[in-house]
Structure formats: structure tokens, C-alpha cells
Amino acid sequence: MQKSVTKICGILTSGGDAPGLNAAIRGVCRTAIDIYGMKVIGFEHGYRGLIENKSRVLNPSEFSGILAQGGTILGTSREKPFKDKNWCEGTGPCAVEMIIDTYKKNKLDCLVTLGGNGTNTTASLLAKEGLNVIGLPKTIDNDIVETDITFGFHTALTVATDAIDRLHSTASSHNRVMVIEVMGHKAGWLSLYSGVAGGGDVVLLPEIPYDIESIARHLENRGRAGKTFSIVVVAEGARSVEESRLDKKAFKKAREQMSGSIGYRVAREIQDATGLESRVTVLGYLQRGGTPVAFDRVLASQFGTAAANMLAEGNYGKMVALQDNRLVGVPLENVANRIKSVPVDHRMIETARDVGTCLGD
Amino acid sequence: MQKSVTKICGILTSGGDAPGLNAAIRGVCRTAIDIYGMKVIGFEHGYRGLIENKSRVLNPSEFSGILAQGGTILGTSREKPFKDKNWCEGTGPCAVEMIIDTYKKNKLDCLVTLGGNGTNTTASLLAKEGLNVIGLPKTIDNDIVETDITFGFHTALTVATDAIDRLHSTASSHNRVMVIEVMGHKAGWLSLYSGVAGGGDVVLLPEIPYDIESIARHLENRGRAGKTFSIVVVAEGARSVEESRLDKKAFKKAREQMSGSIGYRVAREIQDATGLESRVTVLGYLQRGGTPVAFDRVLASQFGTAAANMLAEGNYGKMVALQDNRLVGVPLENVANRIKSVPVDHRMIETARDVGTCLGD
Amino acid sequence: MQKSVTKICGILTSGGDAPGLNAAIRGVCRTAIDIYGMKVIGFEHGYRGLIENKSRVLNPSEFSGILAQGGTILGTSREKPFKDKNWCEGTGPCAVEMIIDTYKKNKLDCLVTLGGNGTNTTASLLAKEGLNVIGLPKTIDNDIVETDITFGFHTALTVATDAIDRLHSTASSHNRVMVIEVMGHKAGWLSLYSGVAGGGDVVLLPEIPYDIESIARHLENRGRAGKTFSIVVVAEGARSVEESRLDKKAFKKAREQMSGSIGYRVAREIQDATGLESRVTVLGYLQRGGTPVAFDRVLASQFGTAAANMLAEGNYGKMVALQDNRLVGVPLENVANRIKSVPVDHRMIETARDVGTCLGD
Amino acid sequence: MQKSVTKICGILTSGGDAPGLNAAIRGVCRTAIDIYGMKVIGFEHGYRGLIENKSRVLNPSEFSGILAQGGTILGTSREKPFKDKNWCEGTGPCAVEMIIDTYKKNKLDCLVTLGGNGTNTTASLLAKEGLNVIGLPKTIDNDIVETDITFGFHTALTVATDAIDRLHSTASSHNRVMVIEVMGHKAGWLSLYSGVAGGGDVVLLPEIPYDIESIARHLENRGRAGKTFSIVVVAEGARSVEESRLDKKAFKKAREQMSGSIGYRVAREIQDATGLESRVTVLGYLQRGGTPVAFDRVLASQFGTAAANMLAEGNYGKMVALQDNRLVGVPLENVANRIKSVPVDHRMIETARDVGTCLGD
């Protein structure tokens, strides 16, 4: 006898891909289907799948064996259905109306969204539209508020640290400054952690504007102490003291005129200030691809199963979070439109300084 | 002008080696020497170096470039100076007296010990003897109380998960049950986390006595669902329901009579109960060797620098610990002679069950 | 309009699994189907699938994305249809008759077998029965004659070398002899290559009987030179000088009475002869699982595509081989029932001795 | 009693660093010193160390434990002492005179140079000046003539393939074309091998000028077959059909005007021709750093020990090479000023086409 379905749940992944998405999908599905008897419908390519009603029912054969796979079996996109503020004033149905329509057509009781800050912001707005949404915190940037950690971050940290390890041998063989640019437009978690893990001599993050003179002094002191090479880790969002004084618009303009990415600029500035030969590596997409490290699989499994438990309880409108080692649900509206920066008194900042790292200030 | 030395600090690593020891030594030394102007003396091969006064002053050239190295530049041993309860009743100086003598001869102001439960227990006893000791929680087993995590664990987790990943392909190609035995005599953190990360179908830990009938049923259900192979993760300290009823002495005796390690026994029991072809891999020393993963380098660096800060403050008699994302010092006597088991209601136990893992009960 | 099928080709994988099998299957299928318009039928679990006529047509969706996957999508078994010498004298159809029957029923024009020495021997016998067979040399042991290299070997070499790297840190931290047992019952390629790659101090292979006194002397000399630890790499098939004088039957009996595997015995012998603390790691199944390294994917792709080209030419009864950088076909009967041992004057033997490795003699 | 020194041998590493240099240095030293009783002097930073007479005697403590280390303990530079054709017509001693002077001052009997094409060309010229030189073929590009393989190549291949593997998950999750630029200015070995190993859909190498229309057609065909993403591997030296018709000077000029590197241009061209969203990763320095893979350690050890054997024999003026599995010495003058391109009928070209890869033509 076929068991009756207890709830129908939609699921989607949105924003940049991150290692652990599939582990989280598996965690949601296993718990929702096998433990609670729900039906799970996967929407394809993020919110676009909801808008266009493109989906498939997720059966065990689909989420078996995906735990260790990178990417997402559902596909993703950067579609933001609320991006136009007056989204429903035009003619014809707008994106959000189409989403609500899809939700109803599929008789969804609830929806799980896996994504970063943009995804959670949209999820929060959909919750306000009356949808039963639960968010999962995914991003390699670790910049989502209200949770101690996001899945994807540890894998990116591992990739970045491996890369720094590799650069060490070239740096030391050639007596060079090797600059490596890692992800992190708005928050410096990845540059800070990989910088400490990789033994970076200089680590620049968006939260601490850098002074090229300080950096030059630090590198020259290293030279005087007999160190013939240096590693400089730069977050995409690193900025100089001068830039930090610009308003948002002026900063954006300054960046548009910059030749190459910030890593190249820092290398040029170092070379100009010290005369040291400097080379650049931009790590790029390698940081978000590939099989998730063990910890991300564990974390994503925890978040996924916790989400399914919250679905079963009807505990909607929340994002699953890890706070002081406890899995909790935090209101999506508390997460929306916010960024978790690195506090300048964070213990890792102190650790970095204690082991002798120059943070640019 | 030579700066005067503010304090003289001893340091040693004791017990089984674990990835991150060198990162922690570097963290202590960089902070103690460069920030606080201390002198650091490294004692060789754990407490044995203290007993025999074998040491060397640690200069920057020694701890430069060791961040990513496995093992310990100081060497280690399993020497336990207090192991004989009546240790000072015999003739001649005993081990502890010799340690105190070494401490005085070297004019030590303080001592940092890096190790697991045995090391911390000794450290606590030395503190009672009047030495200024600070402990650092190192173990791949993650079984030290009062801290959320120990360094070494994440690397062991990564090695174990990689191994499980490798066994998957052989298991699926041959329609076999692959049993993998991982470390963990008294606590099941490693088998539980690697089991979830690797997608183990059965995961056995010391805290949950196993019933071979439950396991057999689970494997047979998998077969009926079309799964032609299974992965079984077994902690060294796993025990059956029957064994869990034995007293300590009887259990020890039973184990001495066991042919091969527990992994082999579980494989035989599965084969007998189900007829499924079962093969064993004992992971062994691979779990404690090699370069530490990024997270262990970060964690060990944090612990090392925090220890040096406590040395500077004179905040002795403590073990550095991570509690709810804060670095704190906990009294060594609270740590001594205790083991942190996996609570049976731990969120990871729940996660494991939710994704369909059989825990043997 | 549907193109007419040019040939119908069977394919199977047999013997222990090895990394690269899927890459080779993909190479055969892509070339046979897309370039030559053949139909490819995959038989499941080696020769058993031929005996029992269990198969499926391989369509692009099956061999897309398998290049980097370990194991084999076809499954494997150690089934040897000719193992009973008088295999057709009994009553009822025997295994080989059933194979021929399957071959005819499926209207096969040819058959590709991927496997090691056992597989090639069977393939040779089937060729004598009139089947159009082409063999591919797969084995982590690299012990197939007439080819310079087999796929699977480089991945096993990488896994074994990584393991030796890990053991180094424990060995050096504890002043121990670490013994690691790697695969290779009949040939020592893997122990020799991983021993040189990992910097093993003693490397034992089946081809060079070992004298424990020589080993002890070498380890003691290391101690006198200030080296406080050693790594000993032992092939499964390593044997002592005394054992090498036994006939096959006596040797087999001696081994059955041995407690534990050869790695354990060598460790005991070293400990007895030198007093050095010795520990053992048996690498086991980890050597054959997991994603193939880049070189094995390249090699398996080359072998697979070459096999398909030979199918198209009707160049049957051959095993694809790499000889002096050329892909050639060698008669299967030249390969059957033979083992490629390491010649004692091989250049790698010389290299090992030159870098100071003790080979046990 | 001190043994008398049989020969005094200089050694240096020159050009870009490559994994395996330290393994080769160790191979030379172990054999030369321990087997033949030579003295080995290491010159620092390539030919610059010879010009400036900067060196140190290499003792066992220096080359112990370096087998698995990336980079080179001797440092390297791109110094080319013969770069000025009329190098001795000016006033004062020129670079080559200084080298000869250093050679005499240190009473060198011979010199081992480890490097790529530039290094070997210089070595050949020094041999003509009367120095006893032996070259070792090091380069990640694998583009040295007269040898089947160079050390460094397999590690670069592994790094590039790992990167392609990582990009696969992002490509598939976002329905994108991911372009990855790998090293290889003059020869396409690395792009060809990593492209086949990573399952690249399009692989561009300098030897085969590409036609963007062919590439576009191939990618569109993939789309029609339901493949929603593609991987494009581009060698630094890839060029279009149009560019291949330019003379050297015009080509150089065209490249100087190109915005970004070739990977970016190919991505733009693909996006323009197909409308597919295309993203770029430039792998850069990651390809030459880090621990050498097992095979490179083996190969470098073989080359190093062979070099020492040739030193002992007085077999000078040669480069050590691997030809059809034999270690041989080839005259340096046969190697100088030449590049080993990928022959367009190479078996790997055929393999690539057989598995369905578009090579741009």
C-alpha cells in the first residue's frame, strides 16, 4: 500500500554554486521523504525554475551518491525576482506573481531555498508574500549573519590554502613576492583564514583598509631578517586607506578604472614601493568547484536534515543556522539585506597579528 | 642592545603525534618571543625530555616554515611520570622530582604542554606540584572535555573520509560490504563524523553498543532496495550489546582473545549473518600523519597564540579551550582523568539517523 | 534516418577493480559508437555476465561523465570460466559453452575484455574457441607482460606514496620504524616505485629475497648516522632468503601458518634483530579505489580508443599494449599465463640502490 | 680516516622552478657522494651563482628530507650568461669569463645543470668553452627534444587536471562555458594531456591553429545533444588560423595589443560566436609549485642518479634523457636551441579526437 504524502515540499539552489549543495539536498530529501513521508519537488536553476515552473520530483535514485559531488544537481542561477522594486506595477504577470502561481499549481506546502545573502533576501520577501519558506546558509564567503558558519567555506579555505602552499615553493626558489587573490568582495573571512592557514606574510581584507607603506615596511623588515620571499593574500574586496574614504559611487568608479583586478594592483604597488619582483595568481572559480571537504559534507548534512525537521514542525520563515554549536532557526527577515563582516577585534585577527602577519594597517 | 628576557618558557609535545602540533608550537613561539620578549626552551620527546633535561632553545630558524608540517619538531613519547602511584616512595630520585629539578635548573617561569588526555592529566598533577603549566588540547580523537574541538581531529576526519570515498568504488564494483576501522578507542567522534561525511551505511561507535541483527537487517533492506554494496565504519572501541554488559576486566579479557581487530570481527559477523562478502581495511597510522588540513592549522595557531597570551598574563594552571567560539582557559584539574564521549542525543547522532545511517542499535 | 550498425561489440571488466576502468570503457564506447557506428553491449560483473547473459546496451548517457570515476560501471567479478581444466566433460552446458551461446545470441562481432593476467588468459582461451576478442591491460600491479605499463598502476603508486609521506611524520616524531605493506603478490613494481617515490629506507619486493641481517645492519647504520627513524616498504609477496628456497607447496604452507600478513612479520623480525620499536600499516583496498590520477585517465583513454580502432580493423586476438611509446597489439596467447616480474637489473633497482635504499639483500 | 675526494662537482638549477628539482638534486648528491666519494658544491640561483661564485658545499643534512619538497633548495634565476651575442667584446670580464673563473677557482671537475631549453642551451655553450657539463631535463612543459619526458610535467598535469575537475561542477551548475588557460607557450603537451585527462570538450594547443567557427559549431552540437555546459582548455601559446599566418614580428605585435591573456580572448570569441556565457580561469603559477607527484619524484631520482653515474664515467657534454624506457645521454648540442612540439599525428592527438574532443580545427 502506498503511503499518503504528508506534505509537498519544493527545493531550489540559487546564487553561485558552492561545495556541499548536493549534500544538503540529500539531507533534506532523505529526512523529508524517508522519515516524514513528504514529496519533494526540485526546481531547476534557482528562482528561475520557480518562475518558469520547471521542476522534477526528486526520487531516491537522484539523490543517492551525490554526497561527495560538487555543484548542484538542481542547477542554479543568479535570478532575483524582486530586483525591480516596483515589480508588479507593469503590465502582465511579474516574476513574483509567477512564483506564487507555481507554488500553488504544485500544491506546495513549503519551500526550501539554499543560497547566500541574495537568496535569503529573496526568501524573506517570499515569506512576506505568504509562502512557507526555509532557508539554508550556503556560501564560500561565510558572510551570512546569524550563523557561525556556512557550508562551502571550508572547501574554499582548503583550496585557497593548498594554492598558497604551492606558491610557497615558487616564491622561495625565485626570491619573489607572490600575490594571491582570493574570493571575498564584502567580507574577508576567506583571505583571513587561508592567510593564517597558509602562513601568508601579508593578508588584506575588506574590513581593514591597507596602507602600502605599512606593507612595504613589513616586507623590507622580512628582507633584513634574511627572509628572501613573501606571500601576500588579497581578498577581492581589499581596499586602500585612500579608497576607504571614498563614498560608494566614487569607489565604484575608481574600481572601474583600475587595470586588472585588485591583486594586480597590490603587486604593482609593492613592486613600486620596494623594488621586489612581484607576481600574481587569481584563484577564481577553483574556489567554488569540486568535491566538498569532509567538514562541509557534515555541515551541509546537518543543515539539510535540520531544515527537513523544521518543515515537519511547520516552523517556517526561518533560516537554519549554527550558533554556539546548536542548530537553530533564525527569522529570515533578520538575515535579509545584511552582510557578516569580520569584526576587527575577532580572535582570528588577533591570532594573525600574534603570528606576525601584516594586515596592511 | 639586547632586549632582556621577560620570561623563560618550556614547551613539549606528548602522546601520539597529531597534525597541527608544529603549527601550535609556531603560534606559541612567535607570540611569546616576538610579541612578549620571552625565551622558549623546547624539551624533546615529551615528558621524557623534562625528566632527562634534554632540550634546546627555540630560535626563529627552527619554527619558520613548520606551519604545514606534520609530526612535531620536538619529538614525542608516551612517557607518564606519575604512572606509578607511589612514585616517590622508592629509593633515588623519581621522575617527578627530576622534572621539578629540570624546571628549576632551566629557571623556567612556565611550561606549555601539548597533548591529549594523558598529557593534560600529567600537566594537572605538575601544576599541583607547583609548576606554572598551560595545556593545549591536541588529539585526533576529539575526546578532551571542556573544549568544543581539538586540533588534529579535522585532519584525521579528512583522511578517513578520503579513505571511505576510495572504498566506495571497490564496494560498488564488486557488490561487497567494505568495513573500515578508524581510530577512537573511547569516543566515537571520528567514526561518527567520517561516517556521515563519507556516506557510511552503518557507523559503529563505542557509545552505542551494536546489535549484529540490527545491522544485518539494515544491510538486507538495502539489498531489497536495489543497493548492491554497503560501507561500514567501525571505531576501534566499538562493542556489541553483549560486551557492553561485561565489566571492565571481563571486557578486556574478551578483547584479548579476539582474533584480529574489531573491524575484522564485525566483518565476520556481517558475513555470517547475511552471507554478504565482506572485506576489511584498518586505517591505522595514516590518520595521524601528514600535513594538517587548513582548519587544523588555523585552530592550532589560535590555541598556540592564546597560550602565549596566557603565559604573559600569568594565567597558569589552565588548558586553552574553544567554547562556543570563544578561546578560554579552563582549569587543568577539570580536564584531568576525563574523556569526552559522544552524547547519544548529540545533533550529529540525529543527523546520521536522519540521512538513513544505521548506528548499530 | 537511423544509421545502420556496423558491428556489435561486447565489453566487460573482470578481476579486481582498478582506477581507469571507466575511462577505458568511455574510450572504447566513444570511438566505437561515434566514430565507427558500432553498437556496444556491456556485460555485467565480468565473465559472469557473459555466462548468465546479463547485459545492457551502452548509450551515451551511461558513459558520459565517468572519465574521473573510480571502479567500473559494469561491475566486476573474479569468475574464471576455464578454471576447471576438464570443463566440458561433465553433464549439462559448461561455463564456456554458455559464453559462446551468449556471444551468438547477442550477435556479437567482437568482445573487449578489460582486466589483468587472469582476464587476459581467459580472453586468450576464448579467442581459441573462435571468439573475436581484444584485451586491455588493467592492473594496479603493472605485472602484465608485453606492455610497458598498465592503467591503474599510477593511481596505486600515488596512493601508496601519499601514505608513505603521512607515515614519515609519525615515524620521525616517535623515533620508530614504520612498516607499510603495499600490494604486489608476484611482482614488486608498486613497492619499488612507491618506495623510491616515498623515500623508503628499506624496500622489499618478491623478486629479491630479503635477509633480515642485511636489513638490521642498514637500519643500525642509519641510527649511527643520526637518523632516528626509518620507513620500510614491503610488497605482499616479499619473501625471505630461507623462504625463497622452498618449493611452491612448502612456501604456501609456511605462509598459511604465518600470523598476520608479511608486513607484521617483517616488523617483528626487525624489532627482534634491532630492538627498534616497529609499527605496521597495511594499505589494502585503498590502493585500488577512488578517482584515477590524470596519467591513468590518459593511458586508459589511449588504450580504449586503440581497442576500438582495432575492432574496426578486425585486428582480433590481441591485447592493446604500450611498447616504447607506441600503441601496438600483441597476440593474447603471448600474454596468457605469464607474469611480468621486476628484472633485478632494472634501471629502477639501480636508482633505488644509488639513492641509498636497502633492497633487503 | 677521511676518504679522499674523487671528483669535485658543481650543481645548479636554472629557469622556472619545477616540481622534482629537489628529488633530482638528492639523486645526484646521494650517488655522487655516497657511492662515488665526490664532493658536491651547490651554486645558488642558477647561472648567477656561477657568475658571482656564490655557493655552499652540499652535505647530507641539506639533501635529507627534500625528496617530496617543491621548489629548489639551490634557488633559481633566469640568468642567461650568453644572451649578448658579442658577450666578450666589451670592457671588463663578461659573464662567461666569470663562470669559467668560478669553475677553476672551485677546482670543479664537472658541473650538473638542471633546467629547461634555455638552461640546456647555455650548458651546451659552456661545454664548448671546455667545461665538463651534464644537463638534466626539467620543465613542466615537456618540450625538451631527445627525451620522451621531463620531470615536472606529471605534477603540472595533475594540478591542471584537478583544476579542470573543479571547474566541471561550476560549469554544469550554471550552464556555462568554462575556459581554463594552462601553461605552454611553444608546445601543447600540457593542454593536450590535461584536456584529455579532464575531459575537456575543446582543447587548443599552439601546434594546431584554431578556427573559432569550428569551436562554435562543436559547442552548439553539444547543446543540441543536451549537454548544457562545456570545458575549454587553452594553452598560453594557442593561436588562431589568422594569427598562424603572421610572421613572428607581426604575431608578437598582435599579442601585445591583445587585452588580457589568450584565455580571455577565446572566451570572448566563444561568447560572440555562440551567445553562451563564458568564464575564464588562468591557472598560472599553481602549475609549477608544490610537492611533486610520485612519478616526478621517481623520474627525477632516476635522472639524478644517472647524471652522477655519467659524472663518474667522465661521460660529459650530454643531457640525461629517457628514450624508449632507457636512460641515455644525448649530446647537449643536439638539444640546444630546439623545442619539442606535439606532432600533429601524435597518438594523443588521435586519442583526443577519438573521444570526441574538438582541437579547434
From TrEMBL, chains A, B, C, D:
Residues noted as binding Mg(2+) in the record, renumbered to the chain: 117
Binding positions (ATP): 16, 78-79, 116-119
Residues annotated for substrate binding in this entry: 139-141, 176, 183-185, 236, 279, 285-288
GO cellular component, one term: 6-phosphofructokinase complex
Keyword S-adenosyl-L-methionine in annotation: no
Enzyme class: transferase
Any Pfam family the entry gives: PFK
Reported cofactor(s): Mg(2+)
Every Phosphofructokinase domain range: 10-311
Keywords of the record: ATP-binding, Cytoplasm, Glycolysis, Kinase, Magnesium, Metal-binding, Nucleotide-binding, Transferase
Enzymatic reactions: beta-D-fructose 6-phosphate + ATP = beta-D-fructose 1,6-bisphosphate + ADP + H(+)
Any GO MF annotation of the entry: identical protein binding
Lineage: superkingdom: Bacteria
Active-site positions on this chain: 141 (proton acceptor)
Location within or outside the cell: Cytoplasm
Site keyed Important for substrate specificity: positions: 118
Gene3D superfamilies documented for this protein: 3.40.50.450, Phosphofructokinase domain
Pathway: Carbohydrate degradation; glycolysis; D-glyceraldehyde 3-phosphate and glycerone phosphate from D-glucose: step 3/4
Gene Ontology BP annotations: canonical glycolysis; fructose 1,6-bisphosphate metabolic process; fructose 6-phosphate metabolic process
Enzyme Commission designation: 2.7.1.11
Subunit comment: Homodimer or homotetramer.
Purpose of the protein: Catalyzes the phosphorylation of D-fructose 6-phosphate to fructose 1,6-bisphosphate by ATP, the first committing step of glycolysis.
UniProt family annotation: Belongs to the phosphofructokinase type A (PFKA) family. Mixed-substrate PFK group III subfamily.
HAMAP family named among the record's database cross-references: Phosphofructokinase_III
Protein name listed in UniProt: ATP-dependent 6-phosphofructokinase
Originating species: Teretinema zuelzerae
